[in-house]
Amino acid sequence: MKNRLSDLNDHLFAQLERLSDEDLTAEQVEREVERAKAIAGVSSQIIGAAALQFKAAELVAQHGRGLVDLIPESLTGKSIEHRRAGRSMTEQEAERAEASARRAAREINEEREEWDRQEAMQ
Fold it and tell me: N or C: the chain end with fewer CB closer than 10 Å?
């Protein structure tokens, strides 16, 4: 198994094919349904984590690498890079960017908490 979103997509379609197999007995279908539920749950978590990482990357792209300190390290990874071309930010622009980053970080944390609550309910 690989660890890319394209691999996840392949696994999801493979599971769909297994569920569509008309030769399965009722017992086998039941097992595949349980397996599909587990795969869907894990997939949701993976997709949610990827979405949070994308939001973090967007923030850095919009407001500069200096805002990475406001984003949880687990969301930024080592691959987020941003080089601001041209002039540096004015103090007012920096304040707006920092406020925006704090807002986005709060949203990210709220989303992660919601996903954790949903996962706990499953």
Answer: N
How far apart are alpha carbons 89 and 2 in whole angstroms? 41
Q: Which amino acid is at 38?
A: A
Q: What is the dihedral of CA 11, 12, 16, 19, to 10 degrees?
A: 70
Closest to 15 in 3D by CA, of 33, 42, 41, 27: 33
Single-letter residue type at 80? I
Length of the chain, in residues = 122
Determine the Cα–Cα distance for residues 64 and 86; give it in Å rounded to an integer. Answer: 12
Gap between the Cα atoms of 62 and 97, Å rounded: 8
Tens digits of per-residue pLDDT, 16-75?
A: 999 999 999 999 999 999 999 999 989 988 888 888 888 877 877 777 766 666 666 666
Helices marked H in 1-122 — which ranges? 5-19, 26-63, 73-76, 91-121
